[in-house]
Amino acid sequence: MNKGREVARGKTKILFESPNQPNVLVLTQTDAITAQDGLRRHEIPGKGRLAARTNAHVFRLLNLCGVPTHFVSGGEDDDDNETLVRRCTMLPLEVVVRGVAAGSLLKRNPGLQKGSIIFPRLVEFFLKDDANHDPLISPEEVVRRGIATPTEIGAMTELARMAYDILAHAWRRRDTILVDLKIEFGRLVEKENEGALVLADVVDNDSWRIWPQGREDLMLDKQVYRNLTEVSAADLERIRSNYEQVADLTGTFPQMRSGMIALIADGPENVAQLDPIAHAFSQFGLPTIRRVASARLMPGYAMQLVQQLDVTFPRLVYVPVAGRDLGLAAMIEASTSSPVVSWSGGSPDATALASAKAFALDDTVMFGRVLLVQANARSGVLHADSQLAAPENAPQPIPVG
How deeply is 391 buried, as exposed, middle or buried, from its count of CB atoms within 10 A (0-12, 13-18, 19+)? Predict the structure, then answer.
């Protein structure tokens, strides 16, 4: 990539200006691997290439799910270890999400059993300070020091858990447990989104613990390097091989499997309801096909339509649209092996969410979009509550006398 002057340098990456793009930077990942706050350092030829690929795969998946990130493009084989990212003011924090008890968490909590599942996911903040070994810092202290606002703490916690759950879903489908995840956040500097919080920095094989088959002894991540007492050339080659395997596996992450929603109105009188329901599915990126049938007037045609749709679309969810009469829904349920989510006058959004969950079982992109929609719904509740609790909405005292 064409790049300008160096902007910043870390232990394993370098940031450069991107000519003619003031709000974009070129991020280059190097062949260095470090541990013990940089006291241990080695070079692994080709690691930067593998790290850039893994990072691009992860951020492409998160972007597809709708998670706000700084990632723009790049990171593939012809990009020379480089990606384009939106320029951010980074927060001096490492945010660690833990879903399985391991590592330093066990040292701080000796009563925990290694490998036990943590739910809800534990989110911890660490101050980026190599001299003091990146100490744990409480959310209250983060706010007191002016590093982030309480609202930003809440957003980082929500987004960190979401990113962890998305990546854990992707790894589970590859028979691997995501133990924990380290991420960082930044505030965008571009005027139209100035100050917006996004997931930034990199997420590569240095950023997590992953245990294939749930076995720590099969780990493929940087912990292999951290655990070494002495580092030999053979050790470094084994680590490079692990990183290559992870880059290949994450290459299968950013994929959305094709699916279709069959909206079937029960008679012409219900056709007008199809538009708002189809609109509700658009927030998940799910296409819809609209048809009309009638279990009461044309049962044979209805069954024929279901058979036709079943052989046309390999991944399909039926949404019979009717009033109180559930005859069409019952007929479709009895005629197909695909999921059926009936609509009989309720919320189109709830129907769309229930249908999307059926696809989310084996589709990580859809799984992430479901998480995002649910998070936005929760945010809507909190926003409405805060509006009601605002001083101008507070109950006024009754005048006396």
Answer: exposed
